[in-house]
Design goal:
The complex is a heterodimer of chains A (264) and B (277). Chain A has 264 residues and is an alpha/beta fold. Chain A has helices at 60-67, 103-106, 115-124, 140-152, 170-187, 221-226, 228-234; strands at 20-31, 34-45, 49-53, 75-80, 86-89, 158-162, 190-195, 200-202, 207-212, 214-219, 242-244. Chain A has a domain at 1-84 and 196-247: P-loop containing nucleotide triphosphate hydrolases (Rossmann fold, 3-Layer(aba) Sandwich), CATH 3.40.50. In chain A, the strands form three sheets. Chain A has a six-stranded mixed sheet, with helices on both faces. Chain A has a three-stranded antiparallel sheet with strand order 2-1-4, covered by helices on one side. Chain A has a two-stranded antiparallel sheet with strand order 8-11. In chain A, a hairpin with a 2-residue loop joins strand 1 and strand 2 (34-45). With 277 residues, chain B is mainly alpha-helical. In chain B, 80% of the residues lie in helices and 0% in strands. Chain B is globular, with a radius of gyration of 20 Å. The termini of chain B are far apart. Classes of the chains: A alpha/beta (264), B mainly alpha (277). The interface between A and B is medium-sized, with 20 and 26 residues.
């Protein structure tokens, strides 16, 4: 059994110019002899959007759950800013029509927020008009916007969004990404989000982290989008809301996810 | 009190108490898709009766204890991944019912009215049962009132509730205890085989008229109370078992609620009445 260390205080060794919200060092998680997360090191700073991409079963959701403290990890470190306020949007929630909840009501599920504040956050994500609508009648995009509004209630320093565009149609997807970018600009919060889409990530993503149980690669999409190879392949305007993060891995995986022996 | 000396009114008052409890708890059972779990716990009640008779303790306590044991067993079974949940529930449900019938038939020295326990018997309600139902019922409602918000949060989404600091596991455990308690309290009136229907049917019928969880819970209680009264009067009149009579009354409410086209009716009514003004 490996030792487990979690530090939530003392950030004096970092900080200075950048305000770190969350940092992990060599975070690992084993379940039944399988390594689900291997030596993950990542940082999220205030005002920064970090997107985790990777194939199904890469451990993206598991990583978020570990970072949120919902499941324990086996080794490594998580350093959080003290009393970090995290707004969390879990993977697609299904609401059974048998449960009579209105949009306004789910804003108060675990807290007791004033009506004015609830209306403000709903307005911010553009769904104020849905306040009295039953939740099960919402479209995928509407629902995600409501849930996004919900995360804003605690005035978060960090938004953790697990596949925020899941169940949203193609047009709605880029709109929602734009909204997330705007929220970041307005609140100055950090954003850590997950997407299972390997190719399409938002232009305003500051960094992309490619995960397949370990961190395959990490980079800034802006750099990649200026790359002549990228422009030749995709021919997108650099101002587009959607950027394609084209990249090469310096190694290959076996089916089980472990590194290939002959990996360069 | 005079009225409590009459077996019929004792049954009515007991049934109303049980229906009040079943409203809000039944809502959570259907919101959380736990009706089969409730059924399994209820089916174990006969084994609880046997245990209670054997140990000569209050039968409500026997049923309560065995229902909790079955729920815990179920929880252990759920940790393994080989067998699907419904298969585990089906196995436990029928195993406990069979064991209950066997245990009672083996205890030849006592007479247990099997039909009465399976389908409810208004003659069986005594003054002690009333104390249990109203005393225990008050406690159950108090706990439910205190846990209402977190329970609703984890019903909406477990993961979100957990992330927002709701002690999900503890609350789920307490909820199981509440279900076991309601089953134990309503067994005599409704009967073991039908006890979950009082949880599920009135709450389902109330759904159509509810815009909030609280309205649905109150509606469930109300429909439950009316079903109990109608059912018991029919039972008295035609000498039918009380449980099925109550269930049929509740089912009639359920169909009426769902056949009655609420929105269309309102729309049509306002449209047709437009020229009156």
């Amino acid at each position: 059994m490996l030792t487990k260390i979690e530090t939530t205080a003392d950030l004096s060794n970092i900080t200075a110019n950048k305000q770190y919200l969350l940092q992990t060092e060599n975070l690992s998680l084993f379940t039944g002899g399988r390594e689900l997360l291997s030596k993950i090191s990542l940082t999220v700073s205030a005002g920064e959007i970090v997107t985790i991409i990777g194939p199904n079963g890469a451990g993206k959701t598991t990583l978020l759950r570990v970072l949120l403290g919902l499941i324990p990890f086996d080794s490594g470190n998580i350093i959080k800013k003290p009393k970090l306020r995290i707004g969390y949007l879990p993977q697609k929630i299904t609401v059974d029509p048998i449960l009579p909840l209105t949009v306004g009501r789910i804003m108060n599920l675990t807290g007791n927020f004033p009506v004015q504040q609830i209306e403000n956050v709903l307005d911010e994500t553009g769904v104020l008009s849905l306040k009295n609508k039953p939740v099960y009648q919402l479209s995928g995009g509407e629902f995600q916007r409501v849930m996004l509004a919900r995360t804003l209630l605690i005035n978060p320093e960090l938004l953790v969004l697990d596949e925020p565009v899941q169940g949203v149609d193609y047009m709605g997807e880029s709109e929602l990404y734009k909204l997330i970018g705007n929220l970041r600009n307005k609140h100055g919060c950090g954003v850590l989000m997950v997407s299972h889409d390997l190719h399409v990530v938002m232009a305003s993503t500051d960094r992309v982290l490619c995960l397949n149980r370990h961190v395959c690669c990490e980079g800034e999409p802006e750099d990649v989008s200026q790359h002549p190879e990228y422009l030749r392949l995709f021919g997108l305007d650099s101002g587009s809301a959607l950027a394609v993060y084209s990249h090469h891995h310096d190694h290959t995986h076996q089916l089980s996810g472990t590194l290939r022996e002959d990996s360069p | 009190m005079m009225i409590l000396d009459d077996f019929f009114w004792r049954a009515v008052i007991a049934g109303m108490g049980v229906a009040i409890l079943a409203g809000p708890l039944g809502c959570f059972v259907i919101w959380r898709r736990m009706s089969y779990l409730g059924d399994t716990m209820a089916h174990s009640a006969l084994l609880g009766v046997a245990v209670g008779v054997f140990l000569e303790v209050n039968l409500i306590l026997g049923v309560f204890a065995v229902a909790i044991a079955v729920a815990l067993l179920l929880f252990l079974f759920q940790q393994q991944k080989q067998l699907a949940n419904d298969a585990v529930l089906g196995t436990l449900s029928h195993a406990s019912l069979a064991m209950g019938v066997l245990a009672i038939s083996l205890m030849s020295w006592v007479h247990v009215d099997l039909m009465g326990y399976l389908f409810g018997d208004i003659l069986a309600v005594d003054l002690f049962d009333l104390y249990w139902i109203y005393g225990g019922g008050f406690l159950i409602l108090l706990v439910l009132f205190l846990l209402w918000r977190p329970l609703l949060a984890l019903t909406f989404d477990n993961e979100l509730a957990l992330a927002e600091g709701v002690p999900v596991f503890k609350i789920e455990l307490v909820f199981m205890l509440l279900i076991a308690a309601v089953i134990a309290l309503s067994m005599k009136i409704i009967g073991i085989l039908l006890v979950t229907s009082l949880l599920i049917i009135p709450a389902s019928a109330a759904r159509r008229f509810s815009r909030t969880p609280e309205q649905m819970a109150l509606g469930g209680s109300l429909i439950g109370i009316i079903s109990v009264v109608i059912g018991l009067f029919t039972s008295m009149q035609f000498d039918t078992p009380s449980g099925p009579s109550i269930v049929i009354a509740a089912v009639l409410f359920f169909f009426a609620a769902n056949l009655f086209p609420l929105r269309k009716f309102q729309y049509k009514f306002f449209k047709d009445s437009w020229h009156w003004f």
